[in-house]
Amino acid sequence: MTAAEGQKPHRIDLHCHTSASFDGRVDPLRLVQLARERGLTHLAITDHETLDGVRRAGEVDTAGVTVIIGQEARSTEGDMIALFIEQPVPSGLTPEQTAQEIRAQGGLVGLPHPFDTTRPSIGRGAVRFQELSRLALLADYVEVHNGRVRDPRANELAADLARDFGLPAVAVSDAHTEPEVGWCATVVNGPLHSAAQLLAALRNGTMLSVREPQVEAEGFLGQLRNRLGRT
Questions:
Q1: I need a labelling partner for 165 at 20 to 30 A (CA). Which of 22, 141, 143, 149 fits?
Q2: Do the Cβ atoms of 43 and 69 come closer than 8 Å?
Q3: Integer Cα distance of 113 and 72 in angstroms
Q4: CATH number, domain 8-228
Q5: Domain boundaries in the chain?
Q6: Which residues contact 129 (CB under 8 A, 6 or more apart)?
Q7: Which band of pLDDT confidence, cut at 50, 70 and 90, is reported for residue 229?
């Protein structure tokens, strides 16, 4: 690693789906191509219950884009993101067991769309301190802006969770289709070659990048920074 690499900002998306996922529409190779064209440097492929898509993406030259092996795992209480894993995480485990399985593989645990009431979100209905504290103990980071969340309140609650418990905040596209790829991302400083390095980078501070046509990005990001207590 060079000194320049350590200081280089990276534009990363930690939640994307391919056609290997039951709800994805983008071929894995096409997903990587689009990520490169739209300025992403790191892409976590997090299909539901399978690593087939991310493994297929890894079979080709991904020059310019680092693909992170991930999965969106279904716990008994909702979805969780696993990054830097080697084997699929079984579905049907409790959230605590799911987090334990991910960390046993040396991976990171993310909370995807934690308060979105339209999907199997792990934080649905969590309002009391004990409930929120339990969520925070499971996670290495929180999605405070998920591009598929259409109720702003859900993202606002996620931002509050990250702020109140000192967890890193990320923006993700949660892309399932080609137009969504690259419209939300997180900017951090590298290096990002391992789970430990990514976690350190997230803890050192993130900048959220939103290019969605449905929202006024600057106004939204200003509000979100205020909720996170950042300038």
A1: 149
A2: no
A3: 11
A4: 3.20.20.140
A5: 8-228
A6: none
A7: low
Contact present, 76 and 41 (Cβ < 8 Å): no
pTM: 0.89
Q: CB neighbours of 82 closer than 8 A, spacing ≥ 6?
A: 46, 70, 71, 72, 73, 89, 98, 101, 102, 105, 107, 108, 109, 110
Instruction: Give the pLDDT band (50/70/90) at residue 3.
Output: very low
Of 66, 68, 122, 114, which is closest to residue 94 (Cα–Cα)? Answer: 122
Terminal Cα-to-Cα distance of the chain (whole angstroms): 31
pLDDT, the chain, mean? 90
Other Cβ atoms less than 10 A from the Cβ of 196: the count is: 11
Q: CA 192, CA 51: separation in Å to the nearest integer?
A: 20
